[in-house]
Amino acid sequence: MPAQALPLYPRSASELRALGARLRDARLRRRFPMATVCARANISRPTLYKIETGDPTVTMGSYVQVLRVLGLERDLGLIAKDDALGRSLQDESLPVRRRAPRQPAKRAASGPAQAPEGASSTADAREASAREDDGQGPR
Asked: For residue 33, what is the domain's CATH number?
């Protein structure tokens, strides 16, 4: 029972035909006869003919085998590599991160730390000089 032809949009059908033509041109540039490609790809001649004409009933695996025989299997990595539409749709659904509002810096409730007895600090010296300037003198 032959495979049923899949209904394709006209643009998709023309893309398949163009792909088949490019594969045929690649085979002819390498001067590979159909029999050689068929033997190396392990497919029949009618299947290779269908690939080269862009028949949508041929399996993807057969296309991959022909690409491998022609040395073009790295081109498979280019299929759907840059998905601009998918990326933009993905970015739209990402949550927007919002920062928490800044909190004011907390100060120590007890004031500046006290120096041990007998030790003087620069703050104490400034305070003493300020008192002398006011005429209050040392306490």
From this structure: 1.10.260.40
